């Protein structure tokens, strides 16, 4: 293993450790102001409810996605394998952690887990892509068993990270040039401050499969990077930077406004319960992604803990969905 890979691997392990610290968690997606319609008759029976959907044209059984977390550190191998197994069992979508470490060191493949998942997306930062390395990234996706790629935008995290690209900038021209040479479906996501406003409009114009909002309220990578090192930035300014961006409601509505019907909208960022998941669908999202709660469940009780967590989310999600009187995703979105 070369020095660069060792540094990345160590950083990934630190990220995992810090994710369990409540101080890096936001205040949640703040969907308390969203009121779902309520059907006291529960006129949609369990048999009539259809929770199926698609991400980048790939079928899923329930609109819950395992969000990108980690890879590139040995501690992630069993965790990612458990996630793959459960995602496949329940017909869910899954994102892997950044493939950057794997590109630096091909021996780290096992840290991203083993097992097939139909809707599996690899993950890479925008600062890592160029038209010239599209073939290398495609080959890495194939090694991971991924059917698509998620490109993440993390300018604030890069600036906060000692090893990061402090001059981070990503243009739609850069993204467009890469996508033109990349044959798999591509998603674009943020990592904790959200996508909305004019940025949502510009991104939606690209030939992408969809957007993941990753809005305010979830794990704060600004706080995590601030805790990793002694930075010459006051706590007050760290928190002020942490407040930049879009809340879940704004991000979902902005992105839905500009995305075509065939493009997938994934809501994420502090979604803390299954009722919130259904609220995101009601607002216009096609599915919702969660990340840190899955790692917390793994930390507490391993694979059984993850499965119990996911099973409950699906059960409560279906109950909440039925309570709206809507039979499927299309009618739930139209109800809003």
Note the topology.
Layout: H1 3-19, E1 53-55, E2 58-60, E3 64-66, H2 77-90, E4 93-98, H3 100-104, E5 120-125, H4 134-144, E6 148-153, H5 155-160, H6 172-180, E7 186-190, H7 197-204, E8 210-212, H8 221-228, H9 235-242, H10 248-258, E9 264-268, H11 274-283, E10 287-290, H12 292-323, H13 329-335
Parallel strand pairs: 3-4, 3-10, 4-5, 5-6, 6-7, 7-8, 8-9, 9-10
Antiparallel strand pairs: 1-2
Helix pairs in contact: 1-8, 2-12, 7-10, 11-12
Give a summary of the structure in a few sentences.
The chain is of the alpha/beta class.
Structure, explained:
There is one protein chain. By secondary structure, the protein is of the alpha/beta class. It has one domain: TIM Barrel (Alpha-Beta Barrel), CATH 3.20.20.70. Helix content is 43%, strand content 13%. It contains 13 helices and ten strands. The protein has helices at residues 3-19, 77-90, 100-104, 134-144, 155-160, 172-180, 197-204, 221-228, 235-242, 248-258, 274-283, 292-323, 329-335; strands at residues 53-55, 58-60, 64-66, 93-98, 120-125, 148-153, 186-190, 210-212, 264-268, 287-290. The strands form two sheets. It has an eight-stranded parallel beta barrel with strand order 3-4-5-6-7-8-9-10, surrounded by four helices. The protein has a two-stranded antiparallel sheet with strand order 1-2. α3 (100-104) links the parallel β4 and β5. α2 (77-90) runs parallel beside α12 (292-323) and α7 packs parallel to α10 (248-258). The chain is globular. The protein starts with a helix and ends with a helix. Residues 1-6 have low confidence and may be disordered.
């Amino acid at each position: 293993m070369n020095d660069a890979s060792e540094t990345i691997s160590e950083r990934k392990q630190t990220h995992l450790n810090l994710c369990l610290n409540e101080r890096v968690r936001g205040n949640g997606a703040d969907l308390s102001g969203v009121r779902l319609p309520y059907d006291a008759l529960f006129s949609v029976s369990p048999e009539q409810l259809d929770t199926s959907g698609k991400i980048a044209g790939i079928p899923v059984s329930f609109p819950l996605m395992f969000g990108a977390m980690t890879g590139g550190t040995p501690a992630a191998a069993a965790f990612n394998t458990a996630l793959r197994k459960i995602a496949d069992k329940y017909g869910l979508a899954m994102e892997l952690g950044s493939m950057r470490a794997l590109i630096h060191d091909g021996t780290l493949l096992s840290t991203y887990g083993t097992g097939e998942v139909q809707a599996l997306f690899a993950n890479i930062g925008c600062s890592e892509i160029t038209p010239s390395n599209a073939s290398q990234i495609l080959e890495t996706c194939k090694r991971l068993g991924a059917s698509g790629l998620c490109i993440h935008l993390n300018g604030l995290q890069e600036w906060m990270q000692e090893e990061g690209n402090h001059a981070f900038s990503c243009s739609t021209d850069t993204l467009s040039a890469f996508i033109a040479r990349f044959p798999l479906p591509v998603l674009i996501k943020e990592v904790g401050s959200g996508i909305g406003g004019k940025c949502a409009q510009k991104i939606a114009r690209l030939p992408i499969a969809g957007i993941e909002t990753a809005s305010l309220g979830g794990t704060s990578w600004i706080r995590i990077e601030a805790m990793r090192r002694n930075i010459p930035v006051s706590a007050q300014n760290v928190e002020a930077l942490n407040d930049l961006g879009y809340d879940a409601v704004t991000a979902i509505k902005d992105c839905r406004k500009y995305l075509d019907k065939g493009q997938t909208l994934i809501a994420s960022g502090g979604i803390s319960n299954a009722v919130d998941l259904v609220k995101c669908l009601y607002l216009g999202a096609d599915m919702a992604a969660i990340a840190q709660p899955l790692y917390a469940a793994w930390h507490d009780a391993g694979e059984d803990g993850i499965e119990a967590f996911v099973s409950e989310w699906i059960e409560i999600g279906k109950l909440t969905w039925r309570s709206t009187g809507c039979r499927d995703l299309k009618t739930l979105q139209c109800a809003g």
